[in-house]
Design a protein that fits this description.
Strand order of the largest sheet: 3-2-1-4-5-7-10
Number of strands: 11
Helix content: 25-40%
Structural class: alpha/beta
Bound molecules: nicotinamide-adenine-dinucleotide
Length: 301
């Protein structure tokens, strides 16, 4: 008799796995021995097990999250996946008319959280955003570096959906305390080919003041996702995820003094230290960025 497929590696369902951050996340998980299954409206690169589904529709979401693929989890029982990484969304404010973007991003997240709860997949990491912290920054910020104690302020429909996702996640874990919902507040995602344009930012520091000159390399963002999957916890936990440095050659102290002088700087800053604090992610998740645009090796994919 044919024996059922043995569970050999943890199986991770990645929504939005065709996108900028999703591609890097899929590669990182595969490189670390996970099985990966992508759900997206666009097919990922050849060879990645996937299903095309629109997550703004609950029926499609429930089907996709409970799908029985021939590739990775046939015969392993009703709980097909060990964890969900939910990255699918329209990633930019005003990319689409506000209500459409809000509906896609917020409903998609509700559907993933709810389908995950019903299917018993309680380890869920999702992409929140630095925009929850009140971007674009304009000098009214209470202090720097920005941290997880910051009051959330949404200045766009995109940010409002991300803030409400965090509120929604808090409600989910009240109702289902063994759920783990980790909101990673990613900074602006960069791929290696983006680093060529960084030198130009120095000419006009106002251009990147909106997020206090922060960024996240997609590969480091993927490291944070993997460490969040592996972190044993329950409840809802937000983390700011940025690189350890800024996009600028000018020092962080100089940038704050000259371009956000009203904002209280609460610590002695390293020369190019990020102004979006990653202290919590370092301490709790063991996150440590490995790529910096200052190192030419990071420019290679
Ligand atoms: N790019 C950034 O600078 C940035 C910063 C902070 C947070 N984020 C968040 O990170 C996540 C990934 O962003 P990205 O830059 O990789 O975006 P991306 O547009 O490159 O990828 C998003 C993917 O989601 C898919 N998608 C969108 N709506 C969908 C739906 N209803 N059903 C199924 N698939 C759907 C798209 O087809 C795409 O492949 C998003 O949640 C975004 O809001 C991005």
């Amino acid at each position: 008799m044919k024996s059922p497929k043995q569970k050999t590696a943890k199986r991770i369902l990645v929504t939005g796995g065709t996108g900028k951050l999703g591609k890097a996340c899929v590669q990182d998980l595969l490189a670390h021995g996970y099985d990966v299954f992508v759900v997206d409206v666009v097919a990922p690169e050849k060879g990645i097990p996937h299903i095309i589904a629109d997550l703004s529709d609950f029926g499609q979401t429930l089907d996709a999250l409970s799908s029985v693929s021939f590739d990775i989890h046939a015969g392993v029982g009703p709980q097909a996946f060990d964890a969900i990484v939910h990255l699918a969304a329209f990633p930019t404010p005003r990319q689409y008319p506000d209500a459409h973007l809000f509906q896609n991003n917020l409903m998609g997240t509700y559907n993933v959280f709810e389908a995950g709860r019903r299917l018993g997949i309680h380890n869920i990491i999702w992409a929140s955003s630095e925009t929850t912290l009140g971007e674009p920054f304009d000098g009214a910020e209470p202090y720097a570096p920005v941290d997880e104690d910051y009051p959330l302020r949404a200045k766009s429909a995109y940010a409002l959906a991300k803030v409400l996702m965090e509120d929604m996640a808090r409600q989910f874990v009240l109702q289902t305390p063994d759920m783990k919902l980790i909101g990673l507040r990613f900074s602006n995602v960069m791929e290696p080919q983006d680093y060529a344009k960084f030198a130009a930012y120095d000419d006009d520091p106002e251009e990147r003041k909106w997020n206090m000159w922060a960024y996240i390399d997609a590969r480091d963002g993927s490291q944070a996702i993997r460490k969040a999957i592996e972190w044993e916890a329950t409840g809802m936990h937000p983390f700011i995820i940025a690189n350890a440095d800024t996009v600028m050659s000018k020092s962080s102290t100089e940038l704050m003094k000259n371009f956000l002088p009203q904002v209280e700087v609460r610590k002695e800053l390293g020369e190019h230290e990020t102004l979006l604090s990653i202290e919590k992610a370092r301490r709790v998740l063991g996150y440590e960025p490995e790529f910096s645009w200052r190192n030419k090796k990071s420019w290679q994919a």
